[in-house]
Design goal:
This is Metal-dependent phosphohydrolase. The chain is mainly α. Helix content is about 65%, strand content about 0%. The protein contains 11 helices and no strands. α3 (about 40-60) packs antiparallel against α7 (about 130-140), α4 (about 65-75) packs across α6 and α9 packs antiparallel against α11.
């Protein structure tokens, strides 16, 4: 299902104003298409949505949970500024609240969407099912991508930080990626642990080895 169709499905499930939210979706697509983005672009959004589709049956119990993770996917990197990365998730969550609340979507759903977006800042989730687990795993699907796609992802992230010297980038990126290998499991849902975990660990080891060369 195309990203626009998934957006419409989610809005219908939570009884939002489909017509009124068209402009919100279009604004999000413009944001995801900003020229400074390397990895955090529409392809990443599509991959997160596809990963959520794989997890839907095993990790999500209700249609409202499904709608919440789909909307969170659309908003989670809506604001992406490499110069102030610490603010991206907070500002994206604020955007979700401001954009969704006036269009008939209930406070509980809006709060869940915002919480999912904010949680993506740390990728630190303890539950093994439900919206937080599913969204956590879908956002990290890229770590388990086929080798060629994972390598392209690494190159795309490097391009986003092109102004950072190689040594500083290698140190910073290592600090971000290494903790995933230190976890008992990178992923939280049973499906992701079984299907994605082995490839993710192989990919991470390869990238960390490359970074170590700088």
């Amino acid at each position: 299902m195309k990203r626009e169709e998934l957006w419409d499905e989610a809005v219908r499930v939570v009884r939002g104003d489909l017509h009124g939210l068209v402009s919100v979706r279009e604004d999000l697509e413009r944001r995801w298409s900003e020229p400074h983005r390397g990895y955090h672009d529409l392809r990443h959004l599509d991959e997160v949505l596809a990963a959520l589709g794989e997890l839907r049956g095993g990790a999500l119990d209700t249609d409202d949970e499904w709608a919440s993770v789909v909307l969170a996917a659309w908003f989670h990197d809506a604001i992406y500024d490499v110069r102030a990365p610490a603010d991206n998730e907070r500002l994206s969550a604020e955007l979700a609240r401001e954009a969704l609340s006036p269009h008939g979507i209930g406070d509980d759903v809006v709060a869940t969407v915002a919480a999912l977006v904010e949680a993506s800042a740390t990728h630190d989730v303890s539950v093994s099912s439900g919206p937080h687990a599913a969204f956590h795993d879908a956002d990290l699907w890229i770590l388990a991508a086929p080798e060629s796609r994972f390598d392209a992802y690494c190159a795309d992230v490097r391009r986003e930080y092109a102004e950072v010297p190689d040594t500083a980038y290698a140190e910073g990126r290592t600090a971000i990626l290494s903790p995933f290998l230190e976890r008992a499991s990178i992923y939280r849902t049973a499906l992701a642990r079984e299907a994605w975990e082995p490839q993710a660990r192989l990919n991470l080891r390869r990238e960390l080895a490359r970074l170590h060369l700088h």
